[in-house]
Write a structure and sequence with these properties.
By secondary structure, this protein is α/β, with parallel strands linked by helices. The chain has eleven helices and nine strands.
Length: 291
Amino acid sequence: MFPERLAEVIETRVRRPGLVAEAAAARRRATSMVGPDGRLVIVAADHPARGSLGAGRERLAMADRADLLERLCVALERPGVGGVLGTADVLEDLLLLGALHGKIVIGSMNRGGLAGTVFEIDDRFTGYDAPAIERMGFDGGKMLLRIDPDDPATAATMQACAQAVSGLAERRLLAMVEPFMSHRADGRVLNDLAPEAMIRAVAIASGLGTTSAYTWLKVPVVEDMEQVMAASTLPALLLGGEVADDPESTFSGWQKALRLPNVMGLVAGRSLLYPADGDVAAAVDTAVSLL
């Protein structure tokens, strides 16, 4: 049935694009940011807009949009999945597929730091802005902040993130900040996952904007997570990262970190949508069970 549903989406985009806004207006919103147990699982799908299409050993895994959307629909239908994070193209496809009723929806804001480019740290806000997120009836916006002490472009990206945090907070919308200390090696931007680097990144991200009242953090699981998360009182969600050859190790790391008081849940994309065994439902169910 999915090819037929997708054909209807394409037909709508061609002949009745105004239905996107109508679908957004008609969407049933989630009643709370977290579930009854105070936890949240978000499926992420904003990677393609930054030119990052790989998952695991497959270099172009996320390049097939129909396959990605079907995997997202499977994930969103699983019990315990609270919502989705994506760019406008993906979220609007899901709106037209009717997959976002009752879900938390987070719009991805800065996707201009294209993977593998010389301007990667200059992460422009080429996606959603705060007014658009409010207009669509979504629940918040997400931004990536990579801080490279040797790249002057960091300053503009940091300032733009601070402005986005303030703009979302003015509308009482969640601002999800994903911070890293980064550096270049052999022409590639690499994130420093050492505990001290993550502590510094968390401390910087927590102070962005005119208020932190609506700010949540999106952080990787690293060593000494207790110290890392002690750097802030802000709520945090764990990011999924790359598809691991050993998913049990990934799940074990999540489970330990989820015991920390300000870790509220997970934001995972490729690790749930493209598991090594191909079973999206089972991967999502395992992640939810950790909560």
